Design the sequence.
């Protein structure tokens, strides 16, 4: 077992997590809801180090949908960071956006995707985009590092300009697949 | 304040919680709490929910964080709170001083045929809230304790979590507007003026 194996964490040289942080600031995000994910760990650290961002660690992702509803009601912009396995936890709660026309941008790191090792991740990973779209979410994928920032920016714009849930799916081709040392 | 059963009447409880409410914002869980806040008086400061079961407390959290100068009350039922019970840990962690949650606990799923909830069988929501880390909690079974609950919910240091055992009888339906875009937009306009619609 290699001790260097890290769960789908992006390459330490990759600069897109810092770029997403800059986009959150550019688009005046104030609340960041998240269930921790290795793929987002660098971005989460940047958010935690920023006193103008309120990081809300959730017990389950559907809480984040409701939090984004409340933030918008109170005049603040928010996003949710999560892993694709958490998307299934959001299904019914996403109706809040449909009921009220609430911007709800989500930035999702994929599992069960390109080169997945863990069988348990595949069902939800393969269903992620279909499930989000079934609930009215506009979904865009980024499968190359250079696509991540334009895609996140487009998803933020779509959410706040057109009042709906949007998602950026960051593929495992960008993140690398966790191999439990068995690659 | 009392129903014929001798238990607290939930609509009278709601009236007491909302009397002279000032700037207090209210999120009401779907079903009875939404009808109750509307019966007391529909207002742009109300968001009665038609869905999102399990999400009322978290909507209250997002609103309380966004509007720290306003008191935010989440009024919900035992079934709705049970569905989102994990959010109490999230709320305890964030510890917003301006957030209060009050559960009208009738020990039943009132909108779906009066099936019993877990609170009918020993589950104590106030204890669960304390276990989640919410320091200020109250369980009210007597009408005489309602004024103290109202004071804690309205003025006390949040987050506050109160449970009131209420009569399970049905009340006349008083329905709020069903168009959710209006319910959301009117509260945003109340808070931010016409600029809310240009954000």
Sequence:
């Amino acid at each position: 077992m290699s001790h260097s194996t890290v769960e789908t964490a992006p390459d330490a040289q990759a600069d897109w997590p810092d770029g997403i942080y800059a986009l959150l600031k550019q688009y005046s995000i104030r609340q960041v809801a998240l269930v921790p994910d290795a793929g987002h760990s660098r971005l989460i650290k940047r958010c935690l180090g920023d006193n103008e961002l309120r990081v809300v660690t959730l017990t389950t992702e559907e809480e984040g949908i409701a939090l984004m509803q409340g933030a918008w009601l109170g005049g603040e912009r928010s996003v949710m960071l999560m892993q694709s396995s958490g998307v299934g936890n959001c299904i019914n709660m996403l109706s809040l956006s449909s009921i009220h026309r609430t911007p709800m941008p989500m930035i999702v790191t994929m599992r069960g995707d390109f080169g997945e090792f863990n069988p348990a991740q595949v069902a939800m990973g393969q269903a992620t985009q279909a499930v989000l779209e079934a609930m009215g979410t506009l979904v865009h994928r980024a499968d190359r590092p250079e696509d991540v920032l334009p895609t996140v920016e487009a998803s933020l714009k779509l959410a706040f300009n057109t009042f709906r849930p949007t998602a950026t799916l960051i593929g495992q081709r960008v993140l690398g697949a966790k191999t439990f040392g068995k690659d | 304040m009392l129903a014929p059963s001798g238990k607290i009447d939930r609509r009278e409880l709601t009236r007491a919680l909302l009397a002279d409410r000032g700037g207090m914002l209210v999120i009401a869980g779907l079903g009875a709490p939404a009808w109750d806040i509307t019966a007391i008086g529909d207002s742009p400061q109300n968001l009665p929910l038609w869905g999102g079961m399990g999400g009322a407390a978290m909507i209250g959290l997002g609103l309380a964080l966004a509007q720290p100068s306003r008191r935010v009350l989440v009024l919900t039922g035992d079934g709705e709170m049970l569905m989102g019970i994990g959010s109490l840990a999230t709320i305890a962690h964030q510890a917003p001083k301006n957030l209060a949650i009050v559960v009208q606990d009738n020990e039943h799923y009132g909108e779906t045929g009066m099936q019993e909830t877990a609170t009918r069988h020993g589950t104590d929501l106030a204890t669960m809230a304390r276990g989640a880390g919410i320091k200020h909690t109250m369980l009210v079974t007597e009408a005489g304790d309602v004024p103290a609950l109202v004071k804690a919910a309205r003025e006390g240091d949040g987050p506050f979590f109160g449970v009131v055992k209420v009569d399970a009888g049905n009340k006349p339906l008083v329905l709020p507007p069903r168009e959710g875009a209006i319910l959301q937009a009117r509260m945003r306009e109340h808070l931010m003026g016409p600029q809310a619609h240009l954000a």
Summary: Chain B has a mean pLDDT of 97.
